[in-house]
Design a protein that fits this description.
Blueprint (H helix, E strand, L loop, with lengths): L1 E10 L2 E11 L4 E5 L6 H8 L7 E6 L2 E2 L5 H6 L2 E3 L12 H6 L10 H6 L1 H21 L15 H12 L6 E5 L7 H18 L2 E5 L3 H7 L3 E5 L2 E6 L1 H4 L3 H8 L1 H9 L5
Parallel strand pairs: 3-8, 3-9, 6-7, 7-8
Antiparallel strand pairs: 1-2, 1-4, 4-5, 9-10
Helix pairs in contact: 6-7, 10-11
GO molecular function, one term: ATP hydrolysis activity
Keywords: ATP-binding, Nucleotide-binding, Transport
Protein name: ABC transporter ATP-binding protein
Amino acid sequence: MIRVEDLHRHFGGFRAVDGASLTIETGSITGLIGPNGAGKSTLFNVIAGVLPPTSGRVFMDGQDITGLPPHELFHKGLLRTFQLAHEFSSMTVRENLMMVPGTQSGETIWKTWFQRGRIDREEAEIRRRADEVLDFLTIRHLTHEKAGNLSGGQKKLLELGRTMMVDAKIVFLDEVGAGVNRTLLGTIGDAIVRLNRERGYTFCVIEHDMDFIGRLCDPVIVMAAGKVLAQGPADHIMQNDDVIEAYLGTGLKNKVKAAGGAL
């Protein structure tokens, strides 16, 4: 699905991504972990077209997508969420979902004058799809709630729901668990697994909660200092000396190993 080759993104003399190469397989839920400042979010931003690379290439389904802007990648089925949810706070949850599909007929002035019936039918279909998403995510009770009033976890569910309003192929989730209580995090995790198994979504997930990563993700990719440090099944990754050292430093490595290898 996604292939990254020798990707670099520099900010002056700082190498946020420093020669990263990795593959995200179609149909996988791939975890991306690493200490703060490892370059994970910058890597997401380059893949998703938010930032141009300094050098290197990104491929999707064998096609070079390096440097394409986010709106073009959106239409190819590549979507990215952010650590802080980007909802339309004054609009309802349903309205936030209905905003997602592009090229709606009602966005063209002359069609609002001469094709009212077509616009009404299209809007009814989009509303129906939004309600299906609300049911899937078990948040139908929030249909008419202003998005700005949602909790952090509910906003993350809404962001996930927005990816369901289009034909997504791969979704990059950036710290989906940040600021989310354990119950809602479990709901989010269940939704990700269902979307993967039932609808064929491919996911790449940045997350610091290793229990969440271990439950959902295979394989797991580890970044440190802008480079890919390791890749493999979650249980193997958590026993990797280089990974433990990257997270905790040499001084604590032996203590962690003695405690069973949990990060």
